[in-house]
Design a protein that fits this description.
This protein is mostly helical. Helix content is 73%, strand content 0%.
Length: 193
């Protein structure tokens, strides 16, 4: 409850950041989760304590890993600095952690550009929501859509309707890609009717 009260304002979190970070080592998983949620309220605090937050990406509790990624996502600077560690979470056994890793990566275009291949691999994830969110991350950059246009076009045949919609949305971000793959796009759209 005390951590929740501290999290009410970014200024309070920044002022008490050191005390909150100490709670990342608490024996109670709920306290660690609450500490990470509190830190997420202050991007300045996420930058300052990024190393401590990144360490929680290896925690055995998926909820703690998820909260750590959500906290890191509050600071594009921290995402860029710890991009490698975040990309590794794209392979996490917990779908929510994979989802949070994609959301964090989306906050840093330079990290997306650097790790585009790993994001494209998520287009084949067993979870449709993860595939959809990977397309959303790629759609943030017309350059990424152009670079991975062929993989995105293949998602027009995905079994999940939301993934197909996300693929169309991503393609719409790059007229160059639509022009390059126009015939294939039309064929796949006709086949899915």
């Amino acid at each position: 409850a005390a951590l929740g009260a501290l999290a009410e304002s970014p200024e309070t979190v920044a002022k008490h950041g050191e005390a909150i970070v100490r709670k990342l080592e608490d024996s109670d998983g709920g306290v660690r989760y609450a500490a990470l949620r509190a830190l997420a309220e202050s991007p300045k605090t996420v930058v300052k304590y990024g190393e401590a937050i990144v360490q929680k990406l290896e925690h055995s509790d998926g909820g703690v890993r998820y909260a750590a990624l959500r906290a890191l996502a509050e600071s594009p600077e921290t995402v860029a600095k710890h991009g490698e560690a975040i990309v590794r979470k794209l392979e996490d056994s917990d779908r929510d952690v994979r989802f949070a890793a994609l959301l964090a990566l989306a906050r840093s275009p330079e990290t997306v550009a650097k790790h585009g291949e790993a994001i494209v691999w998520k287009l084949e994830d067993s979870d449709g929501d993860v595939r959809r969110d990977a397309l959303g991350v790629l759609a943030e950059s017309p350059e990424m859509v152009a670079k991975y246009g062929e993989a995105i076009v293949r998602k027009l045949e995905d079994s999940d309707e939301d993934v197909r919609r996300a693929a169309l949305g991503a393609l719409a971000e790059s007229p160059e890609t639509v022009a390059k793959h126009g015939e294939a796009i039309v064929r796949k759209l006709e086949d899915s009717d």
